[in-house]
Amino acid sequence: MSSHTAALLKHKGALAVASRPTPAPGPDEVLVAVRAVALNPIDHIQRGTLFFVPVLPAVLGCDVAGVIVACGANVSSSLGLAVGTRVCAFASSYYQEGSPDHGAFQSLVLVQKETVAPLPAGISFEHGAMVPVAALTAFTAWPILGISIATRHAPGTGPAVLIWGAASSVGTYAVQTAKLLGLTVYATASPHNHAYIKSLGARAVFDYHAADAVAQIAAAVKADGVSMSLAHAVVPGSLQPVLDVLHQTRGAQHARVAHSPPLPEDMPTPADTTVTFNLPSFDKAERNAHFHEVFHEQLKPALENGSLVPSPAAQIEGGGLSGLDAALDKLQAGVSGKKLVLAL
């Protein structure tokens, strides 16, 4: 194809569907015909603020599922990638100097080979599109906390970890990947999501709305006879209560927190705790090695054997690329326990 359709951000505030030239994949890339995209908070933030948007017009988005239609010379079939393969992929221009060829919100997108995973036949494109960014974010937190993602403790015997915001998209994968590693998970969520979060692998789930949530979690950890010095603060506003819990549960250990939202400017910095923004390395070689480990060594087999499943519930929006603005408005207004997805 010489051209395809894309949702272009030409200026701050709104997207416009237009035609753009179709690129050929570089040696280490694949070209994916997009069948579904999933939405993330960064998408509506970038649309409204041009945050980390170095090139206009831009193509936003980063979560896709579809079919490979062309492969670069260095894309080996040993990765399970070939023309015709159903895949899910992290398709983002962020690590490609803002290149619009690499943004998700278009019908054909370039993706680096390290961030593509084959999609099992039993997972739809709509559900497959929900996986890449949230799973990548969840996996990336574990090395920040000093835990290799290749770790496999016997179920529930590994170190205790607190996941604050477990019903969010990233939170559900934080729980699932923790279970995969064999960690002991204490989590927070709204009460109507407690059973679901437990089904994903949490040992105990607490209502973060409760005035004594911190005391409840600390008491449960102590009653279980463990110490807890690790946490993933998944959602905005979670850092202070996470620090309060770890202060009571870490014992003599130095505590570590992986923080997925941008760090608050007035962030507390207790001497006994290290708080780190949850982001892959800025070193390209290290980052690509991490991407390969996540997508090809962890995500691919986990999707195949069902130890990781698309989560949370999908909310399918209509209109394809033309429906993106309305769907992003819904996301910006607030969505609980759901992932917004559009079929193309």
TrEMBL record:
<feature type="domain" description="Enoyl reductase (ER)">
    <location>
        <begin position="13"/>
        <end position="342"/>
    </location>
</feature>
<dbReference type="GO" id="GO:0016651">
    <property type="term" value="F:oxidoreductase activity, acting on NAD(P)H"/>
</dbReference>
<dbReference type="Pfam" id="PF08240">
    <property type="entry name" value="ADH_N"/>
</dbReference>
<dbReference type="Pfam" id="PF00107">
    <property type="entry name" value="ADH_zinc_N"/>
</dbReference>
<dbReference type="InterPro" id="IPR047122">
    <property type="entry name" value="Trans-enoyl_RdTase-like"/>
</dbReference>
<dbReference type="InterPro" id="IPR011032">
    <property type="entry name" value="GroES-like_sf"/>
</dbReference>
<dbReference type="InterPro" id="IPR013154">
    <property type="entry name" value="ADH-like_N"/>
</dbReference>
<dbReference type="InterPro" id="IPR013149">
    <property type="entry name" value="ADH-like_C"/>
</dbReference>
<dbReference type="InterPro" id="IPR036291">
    <property type="entry name" value="NAD(P)-bd_dom_sf"/>
</dbReference>
<protein>
    <submittedName>
        <fullName>Quinone reductase</fullName>
    </submittedName>
</protein>
<dbReference type="InterPro" id="IPR020843">
    <property type="entry name" value="ER"/>
</dbReference>
